[in-house]
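Q: How would the structure tokens look for this protein?
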Amino acid sequence: MVSVDQNIYSPTSAGKTPFGNFELWKTSGTAYLNSNIEISGNTTLTNGTLDIGGYTFKRETSGGSLTLSNSATLKIAELTGCQQAL
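A: Here is the predicted structure in token form.
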């Protein structure tokens, strides 16, 4: 099996991509955000890794759900040379 990484880009000039529902299901590799993302529906990470890096991944309004299964990973940030409480 070959590990394939993917990038998620914003097609809008405003620098954010509105999604209805966002679902990640990858058999291997990592999906990387390459722009700010806004969700109007629910987020489901079923399988694979989503790395948001330094970008914003948020809901447009309050509500909705985030489901993270035991075979999925949400990588929020990497810290270099320091410890930070979350």
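The chain has one domain: 6-74.

The mean pLDDT is 79.

Upvote if useful.
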